[in-house]
Amino acid sequence: MADSLVIVESPAKAKTISKYLGSKFIVKASMGHIRDLPKSQIGVEVKKNFEPKYITIRGKGSVLKELKDASKKVKKVYLAADPDREGEAIAWHLAHYLELSDQEACRVVFNEITKQAVKDAFKTPRKINQDLVNAQQARRILDRLVGYKISPLLWKKVKKGLSAGRVQSVAVKLIFDRENEIKAFEPEEYWTITAKLAAGKNEFEAKFHSVAGEKKELHNEADVQTVLRTLEQAEFVVAEVKEKERLRNPSPPFITSSMQQEAARKLGFRASKTMSVAQQLYEGIDLGSEGTVGLITYMRTDSTRISPVAQEEAKAYIEQKYGASYYPETPRVYVKKNSNAQDAHEAIRPSSVLREPDQIKAHLSRDQFRLYKLVWERFVASQMASAVLDTMTVDLKAGETVFRAVGSKVKFHGFMKVYVEGNDDAVDTGDEDRLLPPLTPGEQVAKKQVDPKQHFTQPPPRYTEARLVRALEEMGIGRPSTYAPTLETIQKRGYVAIEEKKFIPTELGELVIQQMIEFFPEILDIEFTAHMEEGLDHIEEGKEDWVQVLSEFYESFEKRLEVAESEMEKIEIQDEVSDEICEKCGKHFVYKMGRFGKFLACSGFPDCRNTKPIVKDIGVACKSCGEGKIIERRSKKGRIFYGCDQYPSCEFVSWDKPVEQSCPSCSSMLIEKRNKSGVFIQCVSCDFKEEAKEENEIDDME
Predict the structure, then answer these.
(1) N-to-C CA span, the chain
(2) Known catalytic residues?
(3) Which of 117, 126, 167, 269 could anchor a disulfide with 263, C-beta 3.0 to 4.6 Å?
(4) Where are the chain's structural domains?
(5) How confident is the model at residue 446 (pLDDT cuts 50, 70, 90)?
(6) Predicted pLDDT of residue 380
(7) Whole-structure pTM value
(8) Picking from 311-315, 511-515, 697-701, which range would have the lowest pLDDT averaged per residue?
(9) CATH number of the domain at 4-128, out of 3.40.50.140, 3.40.50.12780, 3.40.50.720, 3.40.50.1000?
């Protein structure tokens, strides 16, 4: 008979742990939180020190009965929820329900679900950390107060069904502000001049740099013509050659935000998908003869710390696999990225570096394999030696005009043999081989061609999920557990939409943010929100009282509410009448705003409830059926896709935008694809691909 009951959150985690603990332990799952604030009311007694009114979550009755019955049959109950604030709160609620003593050492935490880590954790159980619980409660109550106080106001003054959140509102404002920056942006003209030169049979390029020792910007064509005239009779002569060695260091192992960013860049994963797949890898995968094993450490962390045991294993692996020269002289230690970073957990890493991705690929789904490979490679590279690059900078004179050529080659790959971090901005890092021929001062080179090119500065880019997560992290907004749900929430509420994987604010989002800016500026103030996050961290660390933190916030918030109640004007959102006629009743369709943007609804509502999506003709004939036109649509989640207007008789659909011309190889549909170089054209049926077209010119003059 079992002596102990272990309660975790999920069945997958329970299955993995039960195999490690043996027959003396019963392992069951609580299926997440068992208690929460009620949905039907605010559930917080503000005047009684913000006392929360918790109720049992609907549908958890049978689970709780099973846990209660099991707890009566054992001598000891262990609570092994995840090692963070949410996990601590789940354990606290379970302890309350099961009537466990506050002084009982029932809490068990582990950063990785491996046999040794789990067994070690059960040797040192601890009491529930009330500071962690209070930090979770404070966040929950804070968000409840903001949401349940502002939302009814928005229903009354703007539109029924609206809601407001604390971190989510800041995220929407960032997107809103970026859109305004883009609209206000005025492009500025600039030019570059590239000289194509040759030293013997070796051709290379150099870019215009300066005149008579002074760096000169080329603002217009007149500036360019002035330079070109000086080159008509001039010979290009090597003036100076600089060669030096440069080190490039690896990126630190993943934290939650960097994993989400890199998975977006390299795998095309949404933040929510990254966290879902990471949860699977953390909780355990059946590896056949090895059994069920947690493949990565806990995935909600902002610490880059690595355990000494993991570092030693990585060192042995790197030296054996790649050679001693690929390991640095001393183990790498990564400092915290910012002062807000917590250090409760390790960085995200494989539970054992010896489980190479390709060796366990057969046991993983495609998404699991790709994310595990990313985590594994990032960790291994983070422990390796720096890459060494030989760089060569050559100044060439043509009269008084100086052109500069830059070349480099990788002398020693170091960590780059395993992994190189991606880049949101698609800027060339110059770390790949770009060789220049051997050149010596005084050497004359042949002028093949001089190519002037006009450019215009580009507006700041819209936020992708990766960029937005990075911005929130850098500003101290939110914490590892909040990034993915924040991005999901602002989309579900219809405040933002996604076009070409970039966020744009909807009209509804702009309307809500404008009201929030006027009446609740603190909620949208980045410094204020970051300060609140610090307050929550201080509660977790036992440095501040959670009731005091909430009181300080609520004092000014309550005054803002009173002003908004009396001064916020009611906004009448008038329906815009369209030219389209309802085929059911003959009345005009009007434009309505839904969760995922605008749609058409019959003006005869409620007598006629006919609706249809707004479609956009992109001017491309459907080559699949030969009869229809390709139109732009939105999925139920707000994502743009393209399909034939003859659906369902023609079922052609594509996430990528089709183009007008046909494939020169097979006459099928061509679609636009994107990579770091810009946009290129690819056939849907064969291997035809047209070279990338530059989307944004990059001025890489030095």
Answers:
(1) 74
(2) 298
(3) 269
(4) 4-128, 137-184+461-567, 189-249+388-456, 256-382, 576-694
(5) very high
(6) 98
(7) 0.81
(8) 697-701
(9) 3.40.50.140
